[in-house]
Each structure stands twice: as C-alpha cells, then as structure tokens.
Amino acid sequence: MASDYNKEPGRASDFTINQTTPFNAEPPVAILREHFVTANDKFYVRNHAPVPLIDEASYKLSVEGLIARHCKFSIWELKHSFPQHTVMATLMCAGNRRTEMSDIKAVRGVGWGCAAISNAVWKGPRLRDVLFMAGVEKLESLWDQLHVDFEGIDICKDKRGYGSSIPLHKALEKRGDVILAVEMNGSELPRDHGYPVRVIVPGYIGARSVKWLKTIRIQMHESTNYYQKKDYKLFLPEVDWDTVDELWDKSPAIQELNVQAAITQPTDNEMIPKGSSYTVKGYALSGGGRKITRVDISFDGGKSWKVANLFTASQNLPKIDTKWSWDFWECSVKFMPSPCQIICRAWDEGSNTMPENIHQIWNLRGVMNNSWVRVNVVSDEAKL
Fold first, then answer.
1. How far apart are the first and last CA of the chain?
2. CA 84 – CA 183 distance, rounded (Å)
C-alpha cells in the first residue's frame, strides 16, 4: 500500500482542474449534461490526499466499535458473502457552485463551478447486511443514539485517514440504500473513486461517501475526524475565521443535500441572437430521496416564470429506482430576449426550494450554495 503524488491515476484531459495536489477537478458542464449516468472517466474527482495504491489480495475491511462481533472482510467476501444491491445515486460535493460565493467575499475551499456533481450506478452489499452479520441487532435499544464512523486509507489532516460518520438509523434503513460499493457503472471502482471499496450514502453530501474504506466503527458519537468536526458545517454570513473557533462544536454537521439546480446550457455570457429560438438545459436534485417536482425559469429577472420540462433520461437502463439521482430539465423559448439574465430555481416534493439571495446564505467555507442560478446572455447586437 502506498500513497504519494507520483503514483496518481490517469485522468481525462478536458477536466477543469481546480486543485492539483490533492487532485480536484470537474468535467465540462456540457459533457456532464449529455448522459444521465456519468461515465466513470467523466465523474468529478474530489480528493483530500494522494490516491492510495491498494493491494486487493491483502486488503481487509474492519468492522469494530460497540458492535458485538468485530469482523474483517476481504473483497471476495464482500462480493460473495452478501447479497449484492444496486443503487443509482448522484454524488455532489458540498462545495458545488462555491465560486459564486467567492465572487462576493473570499471563502476557503476548492473553487468549484457547477460540475462537482455526477450520477452513477453503484453495486455492493448493503451496509445494514454487513452490520447485522456483525451483531448490530444486540444494540437495538441504542440504535437512535448510535453513529456509524467511516475511515479511509488516505492519510489527511491530523495524520488520520479521511473520515466521516452518519446516524446508524440511516445505515440500517433498508430504503436508505447505503451500500459498500465495489462496482461503479458495471466495472470495479476506479482508483480516483475509492477502489476497492467506497461507502455510498445516497441523498447525503458527497463528503459522507468515504473512499478507500478501511474501517467501519459503531460508536455513541459522531466521527471525531477533522472533516466531520471542523469542516462541512454551515454558519451565518457574519461568522468569519476570527470568530468561528467557538462554533465548530456547537454546529451540526451537514448530512442531507438541500435543493440544488444548475443551468448547463447556455454558459455564462454566451452570445445568443436576439429573437432566436433556444432550449435552456440543466439539472436539479434534492436530498433525502426527495424528488424534484418543478423547475422554474425566468428570462426577465424573476418577474415571470416558465415551468421547465422535467425528465428522467434512464428509460434505456434496466429497471432501477432513480429517487437518489438528479433530474434533467429543459425549457424552450421561441424568442430569446437577448441580452438577458436567465434565472433557475427548483422545488422538491417536500415543497423545499432555493433562496433568491446568495448574500443571505454566504458562509466562510462556501458550502451548500443553492441560491437562484443566474446565467447572463449576450445579444449579437452588442457586437454591432
């Protein structure tokens, strides 16, 4: 097992590289929107350390903590000792659209556009099945108080593997679909995406889907890992780095995604002839298994709205539940009122929507930006 930046895997040449070491990059938004299921080599990459080189033959996943039976599982055992479950799930970095917040005021974090998000079909044993084999039923009276802690092999802050945790009830809920993925889109996990095992926590921010999984631990408290205790939390716009220290332990860790959307076509400041017909395209999603019910588009600053056409482009796939995946949308106009600003907002089945004003949700880490999406269109007359 080895980890250094001289042994990184190959990557697509058309990615926007937001950070080199560790490697963090997103695909072109137009390519992202072409396919409902994102190809492995077009899936955004979010790393916190060098990508580890792992020998499958010697690899063991440990299950420990308050569990009745401490266990270790090889890859073969994870694939053959448990029923294999398939789930389609969209993963999104909590910092998606961070650059829009940094345009207002500086934030700390990787400068993501709107493509730190991708959708894949994952396969592996349900986490609940693994935990029941380890005797989690003996802790039933404590289930509502317990947490599942995950730690990866990649060495990050405080010389610990990247770590995170989720409530045990999410892990044990059969419809929660938390799995230990050993396959991604029908192939073994690529190194950038967690080979040989990655936990997939559908409906939660991508930070909870820990890659290169080494240890699963049942405990009475959240993970003490840096990325659970000192990161991925929301604060008021007034909080800055001089006043945040006393708030980390008082603020809850972000878990479920909020309502999200993006315009992938046109791009910002794209020229579209005034009066021409045009189809605006994008994606939308929400957390907790809540499906998107409506996407609204405005061409006049939010004075009036058109309802976009929502569609799930998975008809050619084997029957699979898409409740954890994004939705694609499009909205056609016969006469584009260039120059203009196109605005997008989405709603989910819980009647949750997106805030209009990004200033009201600005935070020092630039996370969970789900303000109205705004894309400026330039008229061809501007060149005359």
1. 61
2. 10
Mean pLDDT for each consecutive 10-residue tract of the chain (384 residues)? 83 97 96 94 98 96 97 98 98 98 96 98 98 98 98 95 98 96 98 98 98 98 97 97 96 98 97 97 97 97 96 66 94 96 98 98 98 95 56
CA 351 to chain CA centroid, Å, is: 21
Sign of CA dihedral 358, 360, 201, 293: negative
Closest CA to 365 of 174, 260, 231, 274: 231
pTM for the whole thing?
0.96
* Spatial distance between the Cα atoms of 363 and 117, rounded to a whole number of angstroms: 20
CA distance 107 to 366: 6
